[in-house]
Design goal:
single chain, 361 residues, alpha+beta, 4-stranded antiparallel beta sheet, 3-stranded antiparallel beta sheet, 12 helices, elongated
């Protein structure tokens, strides 16, 4: 049975293996150059105390990097569409599954063999792709870590393997229930996209309780915007280069943010300035004030008395609270999210077995 299913699946496997081989050759050719740029440009620059050390690596191979990131983003759902959905749906469409069930293998063995071959190939393909892209992009990641961003978290590390296994199970289950290959593919894409978005924006921030960093407010940690509608105060998040910053808020001892009335009362000079957004910057331009689309933005760090008075009044009552996940939690979060998608995939496969036993005749 396994040999027969493998013969049915070998064309898709050969296409995937050939694609991976082409990608590997390209990355093996271009990867050493990136590593040399990092060692000679970034690392030596940092050792010597230079500035803007990341630029030699960050701008390299933008087209190739974009294609790789797109492939990692779309790869799991492509595996679900072209491996998972047709694996069962094609036989159900043609009725060939009845012939398989009349042989020595039971229907449970038939489905288990398909899952074993498909899931193993899916995990291997996703794992190899992630591994070689991680190797190639490691100099870029070392130069400018951004693995916690929404775009990068789901395409590096081990999460793509979990996504791929879930997509395969989703496609197979959809094919089992719908019994049509193309509709099963479409349903798989829609459900997979919805689950990914829900996990990214709603579940991932709740997998681990975040840390909280409290710091005093100051002129350099506040951004104040002026417009005819009033004054807006926004705290500038602290520099946490390897952390995932959820939010940075300005609150008092009771945890309440400053009200508009309090800001107007604490910053009368800025309120007057906000009423005339076309007012020229003090001293004839540049420095503290900059005008854009009718609004005047005040930037911290300058000697302007109105700004200093406002920030001093706010700093006397409010402080900045930053909610974040430290860099040390990257791999635990990766593991938890991957496990979540593997569990969801296992639940879908359980549904497929139940559906086969109770609905397929």
């Amino acid at each position: 049975m396994i040999w027969l299913i493998w013969r049915q699946f070998r064309t898709q496997a050969a296409v995937a293996l050939g694609t991976l081989a082409v990608i590997a050759v390209i990355l093996i050719i271009t990867g050493p150059h990136l590593l040399d740029l990092y060692r000679q440009g970034v690392h030596e620059c940092r050792v010597s105390g230079g500035n803007n050390c990341n630029s030699p690596v960050i701008g390299q191979d933008p087209i190739l990097r974009g294609l790789l990131l797109g492939l990692l983003l779309l790869g799991p759902i492509l595996l679900g569409m072209f491996w998972g959905a047709p694996m069962v749906a094609r036989e159900l469409e043609t009725g060939a599954y009845r012939l398989g069930w009349t042989q020595s293998a039971s229907r449970t063995q038939w489905l288990a063999a398909k899952i074993l071959i498909g899931a193993t190939a899916t995990a291997a393909a996703a794992g190899l792709l992630v591994w070689i892209v991680d190797w190639w992009s490691s100099p870029i990641e070392a130069a400018a870590p951004d693995h916690y961003t929404l775009a990068m978290f789901g395409i590096l590390g081990i999460t793509p393997i979990g996504y791929a296994l879930f997509a395969f199970a989703l496609g197979l289950t959809a094919g089992m229930i719908i019994r049509r290959t193309v509709p099963a593919m479409a349903v798989s894409v829609g459900i997979f996209t919805a689950v990914r978005l829900i996990v990214t924006y709603q579940v991932r921030p709740r997998l681990l309780p975040p840390e909280h960093l409290t710091a005093a407010a100051s002129a350099t940690s506040l951004s104040i915007g002026l417009s005819p509608a009033g004054i807006s105060v926004t705290p500038i998040p602290p520099n946490l280069p390897t952390a995932w910053v959820y939010s940075s808020t300005l609150v008092d001892k009771s945890g309440h943010p400053p009200t508009a009335a309090y800001v107007d009362k604490a910053c009368p000079a800025l309120v007057k300035l906000a009423s005339n957004p076309q007012l020229s910057p003090p001293g004839g331009g540049g420095g503290l004030f900059s005008s854009s689309k009718g609004a005047v933005h005040v930037q911290g760090g300058g000697p302007n008395a109105a700004f200093q008075s406002c920030t001093n009044a706010l700093a006397g009552k409010f402080h900045e609270v930053t909610t974040y996940e430290p860099g040390s939690r990257y791999w635990p979060l990766q593991g938890l999210e991957t496990a979540l998608f593997v569990v969801l995939g296992a639940a879908l496969l359980f549904v497929a077995f139940r559906w086969m036993r109770n609905r397929l005749v």
